[in-house]
Amino acid sequence: MRQEETPQYRPVKDAHKTLGLWSIRRALTFAFTAAVVSLVAAWFLLSWLLGSPPHAKPKPLETKDLLELLKLVFALVAGVGALVALVTAYRRQRVDEAAGERAERVQAHVEYGQAVELLGHDKAAVRLGGLYSLERLAQDHPYYRQTVTDVVCSYLRMPFQAPPANHGDQDQQSANHTPRDPTAADTAWQELQVRLTAQRLLKRHLTTTDPRNHPSTYWDGLHIDLTGAHLIDFDFTNCHSTNATFSNTRFSGDAGFGGARFGGDAGFGGAQFSGNVRFGGAQFSGNVRFDGAQFSGNVRFDGAQFGGDAGFGGAQFSGNAGFDGAQFSGNAWFSAVRFGRNAGFGGVQFGGDAGFGGVQFGGNARFDGAQFSGYAGFDGAQFSGNAWFSEARFGGNARFDEAQFSGDAGFDGARFGGDAGFSAAQFSGYTRFSGAQFSGDAGFDGAQFVREPEFADATASYPNDAHIWPSPWCAQVVTSDMARLVRGS
């Protein structure tokens, strides 16, 4: 928890330095000097005007002229007095404003200390009051917003034992003969309410749907650190933050990150998601890491945008995982990821390299219409269900060496802009490359097919002796630079 330093203030005699003002002696000296210089200049100007032309004999001043001159002198003197009064009034106003601001800061610091102290109280109701006090303080004083956010995150990072699912159901507990400690269960349930309130506090002040017109409740530019926290039904939908860390965080229940925007890096390494997870439409401007994360429910990344590198290495998805329409501007690494059920990457755009080496797809894997701008690596990947790459676009080299396809594999209409490697790959079901286009080298050396593959209407660059096609398919020349795959005898 961040420790707030006690405000330090200058002595009263040096307060003008804090305010950026001159001392009163220096200010009055300057004012009097300026006034005297103005009087002298005015006197010489009047003398020159009244005595011109210089060679003419000056005329004696009449009484009315003397009176006018005296009026002018009195006006100048009054102007000097007004200047002094103005300087004094300005300084008094600035000192009063500074004193008020100082008193307000001191009071805010006192309120902050009291609110933080309330969070350590034994009673949940008092802790709730501390949260609301911190929220009000940060709303009124923007310079406290990051500090209050750090305090709330620190509270959520503290150890927490969730109450039993059947808390409050006496009949059910009696039927199951489950021993129950009413005091401990009630305490855990009350603590849960405090934590849910803390989560809603973060949600309320990080939510904005219009980047150009934020609501008054939005706190801009906050860093979120919930490392190792235990979050319940966490809702981060449409929330905007800079760096956000959820490493080793435990998410009980559903977790929503739809439409969230991460201005900096985002870390989910080692996070555990027990329910459904939604990242649809989320935008990651920096790097994002999901290394070692575990997903037990369904996962949706539909339309998510990754501006930096995205690492999912070692993540485990026990339920369905959907990345349909996601955009990865940087590199995307899914090495050694385990998908327990279906994995959808339909229409995904990989702006950099995409690594799926050693990935285990427990269900169907859909990459229909996916676009790989860089290298696409599926070396050693295991597809337990069907694998669909229909109309996929591979801008760079695509490697499926030693990949295992236990179900059907469809590459109909796929375009391989670079080399396509399927060396020692194993195809147990139906395999189709109908209409596929191979612009680089195609290597099927050592590939094993339980059923004869289909390459009808597939084309390849020609002449190219580096092509290795599975039997009984071979290349038939069509033009000087293009060949068509035909089935040999």
TrEMBL record:
Keyword Transcription among UniProt keywords: no
Keyword Transmembrane in annotation: yes
Top-level lineage group: Bacteria
Transmembrane portions of the chain: 27-49, 69-90
UniProtKB keywords: Membrane, Transmembrane, Transmembrane helix
InterPro entries: 5peptide_repeat (IPR001646), Pectin_lyase_fold/virulence (IPR011050)
Location of region: Disordered: 163-184
Signal peptide stretch: none
A Pfam family it matches: Pentapeptide_3
Name of this protein: Pentapeptide repeat-containing protein
